[in-house]
Structures are given as structure tokens and as C-alpha cells.
Recover the amino acids of this structure.
């Protein structure tokens, strides 16, 4: 923000000066935080007075959202703040409790299903392996066609 000295320079204010103000120019600023420094290119020996600039505060970090919200809590009465705190903490505790309960339930269901259904799966697999072994044994004893197809349908039954 540029500022001219009022001594010998005519003041032309178009009303637009307030639009160029920095967001950091707030009443909370201490006067010693702002000082006037000469602009580069002006010399004290020249006949015109130097144009002076205010120090910018761009190196300071902006407020975070949480800091702004915390600052807004002062405008609410104590009962509203304590009620909001209670609701927030109870909700967070409930969500955590529900998450732990769901983890426990899933663990119980998964481990119980493995214990209950694993023997059934193993027995079914064992029965399939035995059936396959019988089929292979029948194929070796009677030949390739008889093990797979059984009796031939086109031939009459053999007499006894």
C-alpha cells in the first residue's frame, strides 16, 4: 500500500484507496509493527519528497479453519458451548464404541464360520478324492471306455 506525504503533494482521493488495503491491516496491529520505509528508487537528495510504503505482513501465516472456529466460540453463551462439547464428545465416543463392537462381531463370525464349516469342506473334498480314485481304479481294471461310460446302451444284455 503506497502512502504519500501530505506536505507539498496534492491529495487526490478517489475513494478507491480502501480497496487496496491489505487483509492484514486490522485494528489489532500494534503501531510498532508497522513502520514506514522508503521505496526503492527514491533518493533523499532529490527535490521531491520520497514516496513511502507500509510494511506488508505477507510472511505471517493465515489463520486456519480451526483457529477461526475457536475464535467464534466466544460469541456463544457458555451453555451452548458446553452442550456442543458434550454432544461432540458423546458422538465421538459412540462412533468409537460402535467401531470396536463391529470389529469384535466380525472376528467372532469369521472365526466361528472357519471352525464350523472347515470340517465340512474337508470331508466334501475327501469324498471327491475317494470318488476320483475309485474311477481311476475302475478305469485301470476294465479299460478306458467302460470306466467312463458304463455299459454300452446299443448291445443287448449278455446271457447268463
Amino acid at each position: 500500500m503506497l502512502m504519500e506525504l501530505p506536505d507539498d503533494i496534492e491529495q487526490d482521493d478517489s475513494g478507491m484507496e480502501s480497496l487496496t488495503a491489505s487483509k492484514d491491516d486490522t485494528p489489532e496491529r500494534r503501531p510498532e509493527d508497522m513502520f514506514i520505509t522508503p521505496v526503492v528508487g527514491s533518493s533523499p537528495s532529490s527535490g521531491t519528497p520520497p514516496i513511502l510504503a507500509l510494511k506488508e505482513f505477507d510472511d505471517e501465516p493465515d489463520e486456519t479453519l480451526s483457529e477461526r472456529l475457536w475464535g467464534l466460540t466466544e460469541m456463544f453463551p457458555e451453555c451452548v458451548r458446553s452442550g456442543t462439547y458434550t454432544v461432540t464428545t458423546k458422538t465421538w465416543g459412540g462412533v468409537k464404541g460402535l467401531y470396536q463392537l463391529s470389529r469384535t462381531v466380525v472376528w467372532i463370525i469369521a472365526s466361528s464360520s472357519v471352525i464350523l464349516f472347515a470340517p465340512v469342506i474337508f470331508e466334501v473334498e475327501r469324498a471327491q478324492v475317494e470318488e476320483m480314485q475309485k474311477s481311476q481304479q475302475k478305469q485301470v481294471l476294465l479299460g478306458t471306455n467302460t470306466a467312463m461310460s458304463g455299459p454300452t446302451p446299443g448291445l443287448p444284455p449278455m446271457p447268463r
